Amino acid sequence: MRLTDLLQLTNDLSNQTNLYLTIGQKTIPLAKVKISSSECLLFPGKKSLTKGKLINLVKNIHGRSIPIFIYNQKERIAVYGIQILPDQNGVRLT
Fold first, then answer.
1. What are phi and psi of 9, to 5 degrees?
2. Could you say which DSSP state residue 10 is in?
């Protein structure tokens, strides 16, 4: 999945929507985003970023068509989809 795909898929959701990552069989909050010219790395943590904070981080980036990876203990995991969690006001990237 590319960063532009994620932004388009979550376009209709509230800016207060929490973002989570799927690592193994666990759902962990997305806490940090690191962007380079060739990729977007998502890092797990204790407190979840919201969709609004993510948009603020990437709004001025021109090359948003970069692939997204989850970075967990030196392992890069490709993101291939999302699951909307309406009961948790969240989105889980898988």
1. -70, -30
2. T
